[in-house]
# Entry
Amino acid sequence: MSWDPVYKLVQRIPRGRVLTYGELAKALRLPGGARSAGRAMAATPSGKGIPWHRVLGERGKILIREPYASLQRKLLESEGVTVVESRVDLKRHLWKPAIKSKPKQTASRKRIRK
DNA sequence: CATCTGACGACCG
DNA sequence: GCGGTCGCCAGAT
# Structure
């Protein structure tokens, strides 16, 4: 599986902003959901300039285990993101990615919900 | 091929 | 809020 689309989006996250696995997966419509986003990040090649630390769990919580958790927190704080009790304030730092090309739905997009 | 293992998240108690 | 279960599914063993 090629996670390129994921890395590409992650690289677009502005400095000082963050994104959650769930939002990431939803934005790219990854099959398997958030877990897929997590797998992609787990396979993130280091040294590619990919700001993996800007991806957090639901509610802005740092889910990765040590020793990376400390590093992630450190990197976030160095960008001006306040981390409290292993979590950041999404209201203040969540970044909303542009919608991934949603092929013409001009006027058919109806609610799927009940 | 059979199992196990998660950078997840929704749900439940 | 915390811990356990379940669905998800690509990789590793």
